[in-house]
Amino acid sequence: MSKLVDLEDVTDPVCCAPLSGPVLGEDEAAELASVFKALADPVRLRLLNLIASVEGGEACVCDLTVPFELSAPTISHHLKVLRQAGLIEGERRGTWVYYRAVPERLTRLSGLFALPALTPS
Amino acid sequence: MSKLVDLEDVTDPVCCAPLSGPVLGEDEAAELASVFKALADPVRLRLLNLIASVEGGEACVCDLTVPFELSAPTISHHLKVLRQAGLIEGERRGTWVYYRAVPERLTRLSGLFALPALTPS
Predict the structure, then answer these.
(1) Are A113 and B101 within 8 A, CB to CB?
(2) Which end of chain B is more exposed for a tag (fewer CB within 10 A), N or C?
């Protein structure tokens, strides 16, 4: 359910204003803060990097535990946090779950930090 | 001192690779996680928004307490966290400290979430 809400937010033009733009409302600030909390962990950042950079755009959970010296349940926990933040989505097919990054969410974060007026062209 | 190191990192081409790009190293993941920890708070996000969007690019600390129902020391604490994360820098002139966003840092974060291959053109 929450994933659907996240995706709907993305279509709202107010959602994607940069930090250098209009005043950020309390609700949006709270929602963004929860996304950054999900990103505030080195293992989750590396997992997101692995998922977002995989050829074909989709990573099997079976390939995500290998680079980390962590148990499968720990990796699953981190993947759940990323999923709840709307950064990745997973689909079970047979034995494994396959994850992909949610491009709308990453693009929104990219736009949040865009500084058109200050960035040298 | 740490601010200088942050600015040097920005000039390193490895620093600015997107999450959809090369493998994120453990050290960079740890450093980025600490930046996202600084961003994982609604008040700090709103402060950064106020500072990044102010006309002239510089905000007097005297103007930053008004929109929040928080004490001056609490606001100062949040500003310190943003400063330590390299997101803003402050300069004391007379009675007040004036803050501005660090464009290299925000641009780096913007690039981190860029998805050139997935974003519709």
Answers:
(1) no
(2) C
Domain count of the fold of chain A: 1
A chain contacts of residue B109, beta-carbon cutoff 8 Å: 109, 113
The ipTM (two decimal places) reads: 0.83
Query: B101-113 pLDDT, tens per residue?
Result: 999 999 999 999 9
- The answer to whether residue B102 sits within a structural domain is yes
Using CB atoms and an 8 Å cut-off, which of residues 7-66 of chain A contact chain B?
18-24, 26, 29-30, 32-34, 36-37, 39-46, 48-50, 52-53, 57
| Positions in chain B short of pLDDT 70 | 1-15, 116-121
Whether B17 is in a domain gets the answer: no
Query: What one-character-per-residue DSSP string does A15-80 give?
Result: GG--TTSSPPPHHHHHHHHHHHHHHSSHHHHHHHHHHHHSGGG-EEHHHHSTTSSS-HHHHHHHHH
* Distance between A44 CA and the closest CA of chain B, angstroms: 9
CATH code, domain with A66: 1.10.10.10
Dihedral of the alpha carbons of B46, B49, B53, B55, in degrees to the nearest 10 = 40
Q: Which residue of A has its CA nearest to B27?
A: A42
Within a domain: B14: no
